[in-house]
Amino acid sequence: MTTAIVHACPECEESVQIGDSVRLNEILECAGCRIELEIIALSPVVLALAPEVEEDWGE
Fold this sequence. Notes:
Structural class: mainly beta
Distance between the termini: 48 Å
Oligomer: single chain
Shape: globular
Strand order of the largest sheet: 3-4-5
Helix content: under 10%
Order of helices and strands: EEEEE
Number of strands: 5
């Protein structure tokens, strides 16, 4: 039996459905605002805005 956890998007408050097999630091996308969210804790599940990918310019 699979269960889903529902959390509110920290950006737009839209419901984000999270499966029971998620992993720490997994990236999800909000269906409402299309922003990327990162799972930063598992017990309880905590969502945060995913960090933006930055270029390192070979440094």
